[in-house]
Design a protein that fits this description.
Layout (H helix, E strand, L loop, with lengths): L2 E13 L3 H9 L3 E13 L5 E7 L3 E9 L6 E9 L3 H11 L2 E14 L2 E8 L3 E9 L4 H17 L12 H7 L1
Antiparallel strand pairs: 1-5, 1-8, 2-3, 2-6, 3-4, 4-5, 6-7, 7-8
Length: 175
């Protein structure tokens, strides 16, 4: 079973359209990884967030993460486990835990200067841009990588006023 645990710096911003950002990413020669259909089922847990992610009905991951709800680049401690027997595991998890919300989205993934960039179209929420950057968990490295995300935000002309502090699951629950 494949698992990983790491610290990320991430940010998310609401945008009117993904097309201008897609064009800028292409002009920067960023690497387009692919476009994926993702369904995230969030579960009620006492701490952090737990979701089961199905990608193109081919791959399933169990993802647990903790982060602050702030509208700026934020640290996220994340644990990801690949689930090989997904149907049985999903049925068991839904029996044990209460489903909080399901989020469906189309996600385009790009890589630019060690930052993963997501162009997300989220059902019932609209369009978002998300940055994720792995970082060593030291104050100096977190500050250095935060500055990198802020610079990339300026390069892609993402308005800081559009930064989102909540997860998609929280936003859907607010509707």
């Amino acid at each position: 079973m494949n698992t990983s645990e790491h610290t990320l710096l991430e940010l998310k911003a609401k945008v009117d359209s993904l097309e201008p950002i897609r064009r800028k990413l292409e002009a920067l020669k960023s690497k387009h990884v692919g476009t994926f259909q993702q369904t995230d089922t969030y579960f009620d847990v006492p701490k952090g967030r737990l979701k089961l992610r199905q990608i193109n009905s081919e791959k399933t991951q169990l993802i647990y993460y903790e982060r602050d709800n702030v509208s700026k680049p934020k640290r996220s401690d994340i644990f990801i486990m690949e689930i090989p027997e997904s149907k049985a595991f999903t049925a068991l998890l839904k029996k044990i835990l209460k489903v909080k919300v399901t989020v469906k989205k189309t996600r385009e993934i790009y890589w630019f200067e060690k930052t993963q960039i997501h162009l997300d179209t989220v059902d019932s929420l609209g369009c978002y841009v998300e940055f994720e950057r792995k970082t060593p968990n030291t104050p100096k490295e977190i500050e250095r990588n935060t500055k990198h995300l802020e610079k990339l935000m300026k390069t892609l002309e993402i308005n800081p006023e559009n930064l989102e502090k909540l997860s998609y699951s929280d936003l859907i629950n607010l509707k």
